[in-house]
Design a protein that fits this description.
heterotrimer; A mainly alpha; B mainly alpha; C mainly alpha; A: mainly alpha; Four Helix Bundle (Hemerythrin (Met), subunit A); 7 helices; B: mainly alpha; 14 helices; 62% helix; globular
Chain lengths: 169, 343, 120
C-alpha cells in the first residue's frame, strides 16, 4: 500500500458517509431512521458514481433507488405494526459474534488480494471516456438483446409484484 | 487561477479577485442565493395580490408602502418568533429536520438552471436528469414528515401527496423526453441554445401541455390541491407545522414553484432568447414570471379535483398524450421537417 | 477558473445549508417553549383525538407505486436514447420503440388491475 500519496478527500468523505449510513440503516432502533440512513447510503453510492466519471448512472441511481425503492421500503415499514417491530431479539442467537467473524474474514481476504495484486495495478485508473451522448448508441446498438430482455424482465417483475400484492376475495 | 495570499498585503487583492470572479457572482448574487431569496419572497407577495384581485379583494396593503410589498418580510419576522409546537409524541428530529431538507432540495437544482448564456452556476452535462432526480426525492420526504407528525390529518395528506406526485412524475419525464430528442442533449444550456430559432413549444406543443399540467400537480396547486385541501384535511401534510417550521415549508413550496417555472421556460419557452433590447437574464425572469402567473391563476378560479380521479388521469390520459408526442417527435425529426430551424 | 461543475454544486449545497440552517435552529432557541399537553395534542378541529394516528395506510394506490418503480427505470433508459436519437441508425431507434411497445401491454394490464378497486 502506497502511503506516501495522500488519500483523495472525495473518496474518504464518500466512503465514511456511505458506510456510516449503511451501518446506521441496520442498527437503527426506529425503522424510519433506518430507511432514511439507507437513502443516505444510496446517495453516497451515487457520489461514488460521479467521482468515477459516470454522472448519468449517478442520476439514475438517485432517481430510481432514492426516488422509488425507498418509498416502497417506507411503505413496508409503515405497514408493520409497532408491537411487532419493538420486539428485541438481538443477542440471543449469537448473531453479533457471527457478524464480527464474517466481517473479519472479509477484511482479511480483501487485504490479501490487495497485497498480492496491488503492485500490478496501474497507478491511476484508466479514464472512463464515455460521455453521456455515447450511452444511447451503445445501449441500442451494441446491446439489443439485453434491451429486449430488460423489457420482459421489467414487465414480469411488475406483473408478479401486482399479483402477489393482490387481495383475493 | 488566483494566487493564494502569501503576505498580508496580498489579502485584499485576493478577496477582491474572489468576490468579482464569475464563480462567486453566480453562486451568491445571480442566479445564486440573493436573487433566489428575493424572487421567492416576491412570488409570495405576487400570489397573494394576484389571487386577491381575482377574488375582487385587495390583498396585502399596508406593509411597507403602497401595495404591501414588504409583506413577506413582515410574515417572516412574525413566523420566526412564534412558538414551534411539536405534537404529542411526534418524532422531534424528523419534524424539525425535514423542512430544512425540503428547502435544501428545492433550491439545489438552481445550480444547473441557466439564466443567461453564461449565467449558470454549474454547467452540468446531465443537468436535466439532475433536476428530475432531485425532484423525485420530494414525495418520500413529504411522506416521512407526515408520518413524523403523529397525527391523522397530516398522515392522510402525506399519503395523498405522495401518490399524486409520484403519478405525475412519469408524464413529466416523458414529455421532457420530446424536448431532449429535439435538442439532442441533456445539458440545459445546449437545450436553450437549440431554441434560438424556434421555441420548443411549437414542435412539442402536446408535451408542453402535459408538462405544464404535471408540474401543477407536482406543486400541489389547485386544482390539484387535495393533499392540502383546506376544508377537508385542515391543511394536509403540514397541519401540525407552526412558526418557523411552517415558514420553511412555505419557502420550500415557493422555491419549487420558481423552479418549475424556470424549468418550463428553459425547456419550452426558449430560455433567455428574445429581442436584444433587454438583457438575456431579464427575458428569462420575465418568461418565468409569466409561467408562474399562469400557474397561480387557476387557484382562484377552479374547483378542486378528487384525488383518485387525479391519479387515474395522470397514469392514463397524460401518459398516453406524452407518449404520442414522443412518436410525433420521432416522425418530425426523421422526416427532417424541422431542418429549417436548425433542429 | 473553470471548476468541475460537480464541485460547484457541492459548494452551492454547502452555501444553502449554511444560510438556511439558522432558519429553524435559531427560532427554536429564541421562541417560547412551554410544552402543554392540551395544546400539543394533534389537531382535530377541537375534539380529542382517538386511536392511533398512523394506522390507516391507503392500499388503493399501491399498484401505481409499483408501476412508478418500473417506469422510473424505463424513463431513464429512454433519456439515454433520446440524446443520441439523431446520431444512431434507424434500426436502433426502432429497437427502442419496440422496447416501449413491449412494455405497453403489461402497463395496460397493470392499469386494468389497478382500476379494479376490489383487488386492494
Amino acid at each position: 500500500m502506497d502511503l506516501s500519496v495522500p488519500p483523495d478527500i472525495t473518496f474518504v468523505v464518500l466512503t465514511t458517509v456511505t458506510l456510516l449510513a449503511a451501518v446506521m440503516a441496520l442498527q437503527a432502533k426506529e425503522l424510519i431512521y433506518g430507511a432514511i440512513s439507507l437513502a443516505i447510503s444510496f446517495i453516497g453510492i451515487a457520489g461514488f458514481f460521479v467521482s468515477l466519471d459516470a454522472p448519468y448512472l449517478a442520476m439514475l441511481q438517485i432517481a430510481v433507488y432514492v426516488g422509488a425503492v425507498v418509498i416502497l421500503i417506507l411503505f413496508t415499514i409503515m405497514l408493520v405494526r409497532r408491537e411487532e417491530a419493538d420486539k428485541d431479539e438481538a443477542g440471543e442467537t449469537g448473531e453479533s459474534a457471527a457478524g464480527l467473524w464474517l466481517a473479519g474474514l472479509l477484511a482479511v481476504s480483501i487485504a490479501g488480494i490487495a497485497a498480492l495484486a496491488g503492485p500490478n495495478l496501474p497507478a491511476t485508473p484508466p479514464p472512463a471516456n464515455l460521455p453521456v451522448s455515447e450511452l444511447g448508441p451503445v445501449l441500442a446498438g451494441a446491446y439489443p438483446v439485453p434491451l429486449i430482455i430488460l423489457a420482459l424482465l421489467l414487465s414480469g417483475a411488475l406483473l408478479g409484484a401486482l399479483v402477489l400484492a393482490k387481495v383475493d376475495r | 487561477m488566483v494566487n493564494l495570499p502569501t503576505t498580508p498585503a496580498d489579502i485584499l487583492p485576493f478577496i477582491i479577485a474572489v468576490v468579482t470572479s464569475h464563480t462567486f457572482i453566480t453562486l451568491v448574487i445571480f442566479p445564486g442565493f440573493i436573487h433566489l431569496t428575493i424572487v421567492v419572497m416576491f412570488l409570495t407577495w405576487y400570489e397573494r395580490k394576484l389571487l386577491a384581485r381575482i377574488q375582487l379583494r385587495i390583498g396585502p396593503l399596508y406593509a411597507g408602502g403602497p401595495g404591501g410589498i414588504l409583506q413577506p418580510i413582515a410574515d417572516g419576522v412574525k413566523l420566526i418568533f412564534k412558538e414551534v409546537m411539536i405534537p404529542y409524541k411526534a418524532d422531534k428530529p424528523l419534524f424539525l429536520g425535514i423542512p430544512l431538507a425540503l428547502v435544501f432540495l428545492g433550491a439545489l437544482p438552481f445550480a444547473v438552471i441557466p439564466f443567461g448564456q453564461h449565467w449558470v452556476i454549474a454547467n452540468l452535462d446531465v443537468g436535466l436528469v439532475f433536476v428530475f432526480a432531485v425532484a423525485s426525492l420530494f414525495p418520500s420526504m413529504i411522506l416521512i414528515f407526515a408520518w413524523a407528525s403523529n397525527s391523522k390529518y397530516p398522515f392522510l395528506g402525506g399519503l395523498r401527496s405522495l401518490f399524486q406526485q409520484v403519478a405525475y412524475e412519469i408524464p413529466m419525464w416523458i414529455s421532457a423526453l420530446s424536448v431532449v430528442m429535439l435538442a439532442g442533449s441533456l445539458n440545459l444550456v445546449q437545450i436553450v441554445n437549440a431554441q434560438q430559432k424556434i421555441w420548443f413549444i411549437v414542435p412539442a406543443f402536446l408535451s408542453f401541455i402535459v408538462f405544464f399540467i404535471a408540474s401543477m400537480a407536482e406543486l400541489e396547486r389547485l386544482p390539484f390541491d387535495l393533499p392540502s385541501a383546506e376544508p377537508e384535511l385542515v391543511a394536509g401534510w403540514f397541519t401540525e407545522s407552526s412558526g418557523a417550521v411552517f415558514m420553511v415549508i412555505f419557502l420550500a413550496l415557493y422555491m419549487k414553484l420558481y423552479l418549475m417555472s424556470s424549468l418550463i421556460t428553459v425547456l419550452f419557452l426558449g430560455g433567455w432568447w428574445g429581442p436584444a433590447f433587454l438583457p438575456q437574464p431579464v427575458w428569462f425572469i420575465l418568461k418565468a414570471l409569466v409561467v408562474a402567473t399562469i400557474i397561480i391563476i387557476p387557484r382562484g378560479v377552479y374547483a378542486r379535483l378528487r384525488v383518485d380521479l387525479l391519479i387515474k388521469v395522470g397514469w392514463t390520459r397524460l401518459l398516453i398524450i406524452a407518449l404520442a408526442n414522443v412518436f410525433i417527435t420521432v416522425v418530425l425529426l426523421s422526416t427532417g421537417v424541422l431542418s429549417a430551424w436548425g433542429l | 477558473m473553470t471548476l468541475n461543475p460537480w464541485l460547484l454544486i457541492v459548494i452551492w449545497g454547502i452555501i444553502l445549508i449554511i444560510l438556511t440552517g439558522p432558519m429553524i435552529t435559531l427560532p427554536i432557541f429564541w421562541s417560547r417553549r412551554k410544552p402543554d399537553p392540551f395544546r400539543d395534542m394533534p389537531f382535530e378541529s377541537g375534539q380529542v383525538p382517538q386511536g392511533e394516528a398512523r394506522k390507516r395506510i391507503v392500499m388503493q394506490y399501491y399498484p401505481y407505486l409499483l408501476m412508478f418503480v418500473v417506469f422510473d427505470v424505463v424513463g431513464m433508459f429512454l433519456f439515454a436514447w433520446g440524446i443520441s436519437f439523431r446520431g444512431i441508425p434507424a434500426a436502433d431507434s426502432f429497437l427502442v420503440l419496440l422496447f416501449l411497445v413491449l412494455l405497453g401491454a403489461p402497463l395496460g394490464y397493470a392499469l386494468k388491475m389497478a382500476l379494479q378497486r376490489e383487488n386492494w
